[in-house]
Amino acid sequence: MTRVVAQGTFDLLHPGHVHYVEDAATYGDELHAIVARPSNVTHKPKPILDARQRRDMIAALDAVDEAHLGDPDDVFVPITRIDPDVIVLGFDQHHDEAEIAAALADRGIDCRVERASAREPRYDDELLSTGDIVDRVLSRRE
Ligand SMILES: Cc1cc2nc3c(=O)[nH]c(=O)nc-3n(C[C@H](O)[C@H](O)[C@H](O)COP(=O)(O)O)c2cc1C
Ligand SMILES: Nc1ncnc2c1ncn2[C@@H]1O[C@H](COP(=O)(O)OP(=O)(O)OP(=O)(O)O)[C@@H](O)[C@H]1O
């Protein structure tokens, strides 16, 4: 049983998230999605939706076998619990594969790090970014 981890903020779910978890799922038999807590989302605006709602939505996707609320303080708490064989990073995520691989090795966790592919828009109006969805809401509802 090859266990895979994907992770992210997964706010206002869109086809890019679906592509990410479906791509991640191809790396093994069981896909675990870890949902970032707001305190750990530091490189962009805080998510709109509660972490429990973001977890429930990503859990509803067929490709995801189990979704987990991330640990507020130590990102390796769920990793140690899930004990994955593969961690698949999102195509544009700011994490460095080598740094994560080193942190895993330091903890004695035997797990390789991969990177998912990107998904391009299938039509002009398709939004594949949470930030873009928020911007459109603001522009249409102000
Ligand atoms: C290996 C790994 C484990 C993670 N575990 C957690 C966690 O336990 N708690 C958490 O809040 N975020 C966790 N994250 C998510 C990061 O905190 C970060 O916020 C997340 O990658 C957001 O990326 P995104 O905004 O591109 O979706 C983890 C990320 C990685 C790469
Ligand atoms: N178009 C896309 N193609 C493939 N993966 C995507 C796409 N959009 C987002 N993802 C992946 O989904 C994961 C979670 O993305 P995240 O929660 O950061 O949403 P986001 O839409 O990328 O946010 P924002 O665009 O506001 O930064 C990330 O790993 C990201 O790489």
Written overview of the protein:
The protein has a single domain, classed as HUPs (Rossmann fold, 3-Layer(aba) Sandwich), CATH 3.40.50. The chain is built from five helices and five strands. It has helices at 15-25, 51-59, 76-82, 97-106, 130-141, and strands spanning 3-8, 30-35, 66-69, 86-89, 112-115. The mean pLDDT is 97. Bound molecules: flavin mononucleotide and adenosine-5'-triphosphate. Adenosine-5'-triphosphate is lined by residues 8-11, 16-17, 19-20, 44, 90-93, 116, 118-119, 128-131. Its EC number is 2.7.7.2. Homodimer. Residues 6-134 form the Cytidyltransferase-like domain. Catalyzes the transfer of the AMP portion of ATP to flavin mononucleotide (FMN) to produce flavin adenine dinucleotide (FAD) coenzyme.
What keywords describe this structure?
142 residues; 5 helices; Rossmann fold; 5-stranded parallel β-sheet; single chain; binds adenosine-5'-triphosphate; binds flavin mononucleotide; alpha/beta; ATP binding
Global shape: globular
Q: What small molecules does this complex bind?
A: flavin mononucleotide, adenosine-5'-triphosphate
Largest sheet: 5 strands, parallel
CATH class: Alpha Beta
User: For this structure, what is the CATH homologous superfamily?
Assistant: HUPs
Mean pLDDT equals 97
Tally of separate domains: 1
Number of strands: 5
Placed side by side, the strands forming the largest sheet appear as 3-2-1-4-5
Count of alpha/pi helices: 5
Radius of gyration: 15 Å
Which assembly state applies to the chains in this document? single chain
Residue windows where pLDDT falls under 50 for at least 5 positions:
none
Relative strand content: 15-25%
The CATH architecture designation is 3-Layer(aba) Sandwich
Classify the fold: give the CATH topology. Answer: Rossmann fold
Order of helices and strands: EHEHEHEHEH
Question: Ends: how far apart?
Answer: 50 Å
The percentage helix is: 25-40%
